[in-house]
Design goal:
alpha/beta, Rossmann fold, Helicase, Ruva Protein, domain 3, five-stranded parallel β-sheet, 16 strands, 47% helix, globular, binds adenosine-5'-triphosphate, binds magnesium ion
C-alpha cells in the first residue's frame, strides 16, 4: 500500500514544523529531505529530484510563492503541496491556481496531511492534464469554484458516494467526469440519465435482463451497474427516478449485488456512485417523491456547484475559452473579445449558467466571424436576441425550423461587399472541410487557381492548419 521509496522534500523556516511533518511521514515509510529556506529548497529539488515538495507559504527572503515559481522555472514538474498559515488562504488558492497540487492549512492535521500526500504521490504518474484549448478543459479560477475542484480531487480516490447538486448548466456532469478521472478507478465511467429513460425500461437498463425474460427481450443485456463494475456509475437527474426504481437502486447500493431481470443469479458489483440533480431533494423527500434512506446513501459527500452569478469573475475567462473553441470551429486564426466586450458579458445574468454563456459566445463568434470581437459586436447580437435556446430546447420538433442565426444576421448587413465577403468566407471553410483540408483539391473543386485560394485564406483570416487540427482529416 505504501510506496516505500517515495521521497518528499519538506520546506519550512520553522524547524519544529519540518520535524513534525518528517516524523509523521517517516512512520508511513516515506524518505524525507529537508530545507529551511526557499533557495535551499530549489537547490535540493533540482539535485535530488524528490517525488513531492511540501512548501510553507511564509518564509523569509524567498517566500513559498517565489519558491514555487522558481521550481517551475527550473523545470521541476512534480507536485507541490502548499502549507498556509491562518489568513493566507487566499495566497494558497492562488498557489493552487499557479499549479500547486493542493494546500493545507495550519495547524496541520495528521490525516489531512497523509491524504494530501497520498493523493499527490499517487497522481504524479497517472495525471494527464487535459490539453489547454480543448473542449474538455475545465475553466474556472474563482475561489468558490476552485474549492469545489479541490474537494472533488480529494474525495476522488475514495469510494464514498457523491451527490452533486446545483442549478442547470453549472457543470455537474463536468465535475462528475473530473472525479472519475482523478479516481483510481480506471475502469468505465458509465452514465445513466434517469430522466431520459422511460420507467418501464430503467430497471433493465440499470440491472440488465436475460433473453426471453419479457416480450422484446431478444437477447441478454448487460446492465449499467455491471458495465460500471470497477468504475464509476453516474446517475444523472436522480431526482427524476421513480419511487419503485429508487427502492431497487437502494438495495443494489446497500448489498453491492444486482440481479438481472429474469435471472436468479446475483452478480456482485463494485461501483462508485456519483449522482446529480438540480432538484431540491430535501423538498422532494418532504413531498414523498424521494426516499430519505436513498438520499442518505447517495449524499455521503455533497458537492454543490456554484451558479455563474456566484463566480462572476470566471465569466471573462470562460468567454475567452469558449471563443477560442468556436473560433477554431469557424476557421478563425483566433477569436478574442476585447476587454470591454468581456466586461459587458460579465454584467449579464445567466439563468442557464455556464451552458448559456457558452451558447451565447458560440453564437457571437459564428455571427460576427471576426478575430477580434468588440463591445459593439456583442451589443449588436444581444440587442436582437430574444432567447438563447439551451441544448435541451433544440429537439422541439414539428415547428418550422427558425432561420439560423447567421442567416438572419446576413440580412442585417447593408453593404453588398461585406455580405459577399462573409458568404465567401463560410463557403471556403465548408469546401475545405469537404475536401479534407487539401488546398489544391479545394481550389480545383472551386474552379479557382490555388494562388487565389491562398489569397482568400489570407484575406479572411482562415487558418487551415487549425481547422484541420480541429476537425481531423476524415471527410
Ligand atoms: N468549468 C467549466 N469549464 C468549461 N466548460 C464548462 C464548465 N462547466 C460547464 N461547462 C460546459 O457547460 C455545459 C453544461 O455543463 P454540464 O452539462 O456539466 O452542466 P449540468 O450541471 O450537468 O447541467 P444540467 O443540470 O442541465 O444537466 C457543458 O457544455 C459543459 O462542457
Ligand atoms: Mg447534467
Amino acid at each position: 500500500m505504501i510506496a516505500m521509496s517515495k521521497r518528499i522534500l519538506i520546506v519550512d523556516d520553522e524547524k519544529d514544523i519540518v520535524e513534525a511533518i518528517a516524523n509523521i511521514l517517516t512512520l508511513e515509510g516515506y524518505a524525507i529531505l529537508k530545507a529551511y529556506r526557499g533557495y535551499e529548497a530549489v537547490k535540493t529539488a533540482v539535485n535530488e529530484k524528490p517525488d513531492l515538495v511540501i512548501l510553507d507559504v511564509k518564509m523569509p527572503i524567498m517566500d513559498g510563492m517565489d519558491t514555487l515559481h522558481e521550481l517551475r522555472q527550473k523545470g521541476f514538474k512534480k507536485p507541490v503541496i502548499i502549507i498556509s498559515g491562518h489568513g493566507d488562504i487566499k495566497t494558497a488558492v492562488e498557489a493552487v491556481r499557479l499549479g500547486a497540487f493542493d494546500f493545507l492549512e495550519k495547524p496541520l492535521s495528521r490525516n489531512g496531511l497523509l491524504i494530501a500526500v497520498q493523493n499527490a504521490v499517487k497522481t504524479t504518474a497517472e495525471q494527464e492534464p487535459t490539453e489547454p484549448g480543448s473542449r474538455n478543459e475545465i475553466i474556472g479560477r474563482d475561489p468558490a469554484f476552485i474549492q469545489c475542484l479541490r474537494v472533488a480531487e480529494r474525495i476522488a480516490p475514495t469510494t464514498a458516494p457523491v451527490l452533486i447538486t446545483g442549478d442547470t448548466g453549472t457543470g455537474k456532469e463536468v465535475v462528475a467526469r473530473y472525479i472519475h478521472e482523478y479516481s483510481k478507478r480506471k475502469k468505465n465511467f458509465v452514465e445513466v440519465n434517469c430522466a431520459a429513460i422511460p420507467d418501464e425500461l430503467i430497471e433493465s437498463e440499470l440491472f440488465g435482463h436475460m433473453k426471453g425474460s419479457f416480450t422484446g427481450a431478444i437477447a441478454d443485456k448487460t446492465g449499467k451497474f455491471v458495465a460500471a463494475d470497477g468504475g464509476t456509475l453516474f446517475l444523472d437527474e436522480i431526482g427524476d427516478m421513480s419511487l419503485k426504481t429508487q427502492a431497487k437502486v437502494l438495495r443494489a447500493i446497500q448489498e453491492k449485488i444486482i440481479i438481472p431481470i429474469g435471472s436468479n443469479t446475483p452478480i456482485s458489483v463494485n461501483v462508485r456512485i456519483i449522482s446529480a440533480t438540480n432538484k431540491n431533494l430535501a423538498q422532494e423527500i418532504e413531498e414523498n417523491r424521494f426516499r430519505e434512506d436513498l438520499f442518505y446513501r447517495l449524499n455521503v459527500i455533497e458537492l454543490r456547484m456554484p451558479s455563474l452569478s456566484e463566480r462572476k469573475s470566471d465569466i471573462p475567462l470562460m468567454a475567452d475559452h469558449f471563443a477560442t473553441i468556436s473560433g477554431k470551429e469557424n476557421g478563425l486564426k483566433q477569436a478574442q473579445f476585447t476587454d470591454d466586450a468581456k466586461t459587458l458579458l460579465a454584467e449579464r445574468d445567466y439563468p442557464g449558467n455556464v451552458r448559456e454563456l457558452k451558447n451565447l459566445v458560440e453564437r457571437i463568434v459564428v455571427i460576427s466571424q471576426k478575430s477580434t470581437i468588440s463591445m459593439e459586436d456583442v451589443k449588436m447580437i444581444l440587442d436582437n436576441r430574444f432567447d438563447i435556446p439551451g441544448e435541451d430546447f433544440q429537439e422541439k420538433a414539428d415547428l418550422p425550423a427558425p432561420p439560423s442565426p447567421s442567416e438572419t444576421d446576413f440580412f442585417k448587413i447593408n453593404s453588398l461587399k461585406e455580405f459577399r465577403d462573409r458568404i465567401e468566407r463560410l463557403f471556403i471553410i465548408e469546401k475545405l472541410k469537404q475536401n479534407g483540408f487539401n488546398i489544391s483539391r479545394t481550389a480545383e473543386i472551386m474552379e479557382t487557381p490555388r494562388s487565389n485560394l491562398y489569397k482568400k485564406l489570407e484575406q479572411y483570416d482562415i487558418d487551415v492548419k487549425e481547422l484541420e487540427a480541429y476537425y481531423g482529416k476524415e471527410i
